[in-house]
Amino acid sequence: MVAELASNAVLHGRVRGRDFRLTLKLHEDGILRIEVTDARGDRIPRVPDPGAERTESGRGLLIVAA
């Protein structure tokens, strides 16, 4: 999951001279929160339609949603 989010930030949110930020936090109840922030605040990620044609890419946010 972390690799998927980080690679999406690098591929789709890259701005020259700026990096993405990755934060992992383990809560007392055992839930792990993963946050990835990229440098592109002008582009909002959108989850593709699950009924759309299956390809080898474009499923990262579907994995996150699941």
Sum this structure up briefly.
By secondary structure, this protein is an alpha+beta fold.
Overview of this structure, please?
By secondary structure, this protein is of the alpha+beta class. The chain is 26% helix and 18% strand. The chain contains two helices and two strands; from the N terminus they run H-E-E-H. It has a two-stranded antiparallel ribbon.
Write the layout of secondary structure elements.
Layout: H1 2-12, E1 21-26, E2 32-37, H2 60-65
Antiparallel strand pairs: 1-2
Core attributes:
single chain, 66 residues, alpha+beta, two-stranded antiparallel sheet, 18% strand
Structural class: alpha+beta
- Please give the order of strands in the largest beta sheet: 1-2
Quickly count the helices.
2
How would you sum up the global shape?
flat
Mean pLDDT: 78
Backbone CA Rg: 13 Å
Roughly how much helix do the residues carry, as a percent range? 25-40%
Share of residues in strands: 15-25%
Counting DSSP E segments of at least 2 residues, the number of strands comes to 2
The description of the largest β-sheet is: 2 strands, antiparallel
Low-confidence stretches: none
Order of helices and strands: HEEH
